[in-house]
Amino acid sequence: MSRLLTRSTENRRAERDYENLLVVDDVRLAFGGVTAIDGVSFHVDDGELYAIIGPNGAGKTSIFNCLNQVYHPDEGDIRWKGKTVLGLKPNQTAELGMARTFQNIALFPHMNVVENILTGRHIRMDQTWWQGALWLGKGRRDEFENREVVEDIIDFLEIERWRKQPVGMLPYGIQKRVELGRALAMDPDLLLLDEPVAGMNLEETEDMARFILDIRDELGIAIILVEHDMGLVMDIADRVMVVDFGRKISEGVPEVVQNDPEVIKAYLGET
Amino acid sequence: MRGRPLLVTNYADDQAMLKSTTQTVMAGLFLLFLVCIPLFAPGAIGGGESRIPGPTFLAGADWLKLLSELGIFAMAALGLNILSGLAGQVSLGHAFFMGLGAYTAAVLGSGPGALWGVGLPIWVWLPMAGLIPAAVGIVISPTAVRVRGLYLAIVTLGLVFIGEYVWRNLDFITGGSQSGRNFPALQVRLWREEEALLDLEASGTWLGFLNLSGEGKFYLFILALTVLFVIVAKNIQRSRVGRAFQAIRDRDVAAEIMGVDEFRYKTLAFAISSFYAGVAGALLAVEVGRTIPEQWDLLLSVEIIAIVLIGGAGSISGVLMGSAFVVLLPRLVQDFGNLLQQSAASGGVLATIFDPILSTGPGDFGVVNLSPGVAPGLGILQLNTLIYGLLIIAFLIFEPLGLYGVWVRIRNYWKGWPFTY
């Protein structure tokens, strides 16, 4: 078993020297005249499963893109373990410990499952390009060590039988799982899941929910979940934030949010 | 060969370059055959007429030169394959980097004379012929990594034209368009001493019993270097850096979010590809002997791209097949033309079979003209160009994976035989 898969929320909390893992403070983002995010604030703690819901176009994916610094917020601050992430490049946010899956699957279609997950190990691998090019000593050893971690992840997600298949040919549900594996391979502290069960049938959804809970409970990785499947969100989330038109309209434990009149209004319209 | 070739019990076997015994044996035998080619010549071993049995014509000077050229083009194409096939950055500028490598070799390797030359030994000028283009590639890449696709193609196209202009005007290095310049000989020296330790261009005896022609030695040197470059390219492809390249090619935003520094890796791809191009350019110039600046033009870039496309972008065995195809095809068409000509002259069977498309004299309308200047139709040279162009179009339409794709189909057919899957 690799070190990656034997950590827990408890020892993550014991190590930490910051107050909140992630703090988003009054972030605003506009594209020309269109306001995508209009002053959203929230925070996420270690080992927490935090869900963001809202109607289409509410700004959920834009929030993710701000966290990853794909978009740069016009105002506000995003702090990771107490330090701002503003001004970093997307690949630097990955090195901090943020991993992500995408709403529309963004696997590397010409690689097989193992290679995709190994690409997720990129930031954790310890070889220079010329060590890899020589394939001797350190470079070779590094490849095999990381391959072992990949096998653990494949085992964890139960995708052994698709290991050597090009991902483009896999069923949709399996592709989503491989993408989750690729994000896990980054050994993150926070996992951003953008609609992990979109377009899945009930059985696949239940499998995915089980994996998400296992990731939080066994690996202690904090998760931010963007999802339209209300059943899933209300069942597994610790806290839920509802956004509409780029603004936060409600936040709290699932039971509270479910009964918030603002939320009902946003989803069902005025009564 | 037998047993369960897909069963592996450790990661070393699973990630191996040659995955099965069959592959290893076949590759080994093929390499042995390639090494033995110069020994097919009569009198190659010891004295007298003793030789290794094999097709003698391959050991002839012209074929050895052709095979050396094949290796050199394969090296250049391997470089482009890393940039375009792996990292997905289309580049038309390969000829520029080849030219840069050639002139670096010329300046560093040639002795002082009418043109600028420093006269350093091969272990300086050959690596530098790769390193200088790599450095220039790094300097240029900030402009190139900002654009992608068609725009990148145009930017790199500009590089070829700038290069040609510069070469033409730096006549104290290149000799200008009129005369060109000579390139250093492939001789191994410790430093600048008179007598070369190893002369790879003059015929002589190796190990006391191998009689090799200059072309044979040159060929063996190129073969060794090509094998080395293939291994490095394959390692790049299967290690961390190769996966980063492919990630950028497939999904650049996802790659960045996985922690791949796009700028850094695109620059690295440019540098590695320019290194391959530079070394190949230097060797090509050495092989040709005397070249003018116009040698390093767009056509050369297109030829390298054709190799990668015909072979199958992103696959190393494809690139090797593509090089063989592009370098040997003109020769084969030419030989076939000569055969037809002989056959037509003597009324042979071949000429009868191909009579409808042959044109042997005035009034005989065929596509292929065997008596230039007299009969209508295309000459052998024009036919060559035509076939070349048609093949590129055919590959792009029918088999985007190139020769590699054809090979995979054949292999899968025989793997499943006698079943259809």
Q: How is this structure best summarized?
A:
The complex is a heterodimer of chains A (271) and B (421). Chain A is of the alpha/beta class and 271 residues long.
Any overview of this molecule?
The complex is a heterodimer of chains A (271) and B (421). With 271 residues, chain A is an alpha/beta fold. Chain A folds into two domains: 181 residues, P-loop containing nucleotide triphosphate hydrolases (Rossmann fold), CATH 3.40.50; 79 residues, no CATH class. Chain A contains eleven helices and ten strands. Chain A is globular, with a radius of gyration of 19 Å. By secondary structure, chain B is mainly α. Chain B folds into two domains: 258 residues, no CATH class; 85 residues, no CATH class. Helix content of chain B is 63%, strand content 4%. In chain B, a hairpin with a 3-residue loop joins strand 4 and strand 5. In chain B, helix 3 packs across helix 10, helix 3 runs antiparallel to helix 14 and helix 13 runs parallel beside helix 17. The longest helix of chain B is centred in the C-terminal third of the chain and has 31 residues. Chain B is globular and about 70 Å long. The model of chain B has no long low-confidence stretch (mean pLDDT 87). Classes of the chains: A alpha/beta (271), B mainly alpha (421).
